[in-house]
Amino acid sequence: QVQLVESGGGLVQPGGSLRLSCAASESIFSINSGMGWYRQAPGKERELVAAITGVGIRNYADSVKGRFTISGDNAKNTVYLEMNNLKPEDTAVYYCNAGRLYYPGGVFRPGDYWGQGTQVTVSS
Length: 124
Hints:
Layout (H helix, E strand, L loop, with lengths): L3 E4 L2 E3 L5 E7 L8 E8 L6 E7 L4 E3 L7 E6 L4 E6 L8 E9 L1 E2 L3 E2 L4 E2 L3 E5 L2
Parallel strand pairs: 2-13
Antiparallel strand pairs: 1-3, 3-8, 4-5, 4-9, 5-6, 7-8, 9-12, 9-13, 10-11
């Protein structure tokens, strides 16, 4: 069972920045496997924020394109999410996700493993 340990959440003002990190307990990155971030706001369904495979294929939600950047360190089994120009609507619990992510046709789906979640609150 892969364990995921998240860090970096917190309270930030609109327009501010945060960096989330997630470390996996074992090797995750490969051609079709990798790590990513999902988020869930109160009363809403969990949604993809960004994901990356071991060969650098990335997927972003339209709402975060141009503001968030996902990167991975294969050697450290770690994924990072750099979040800039944060907005109140980015407020949510952010969950790290890992496993087989990438499928034929360019489809991204959640992997099998989830972190415990970290709260991100954007408020003045």
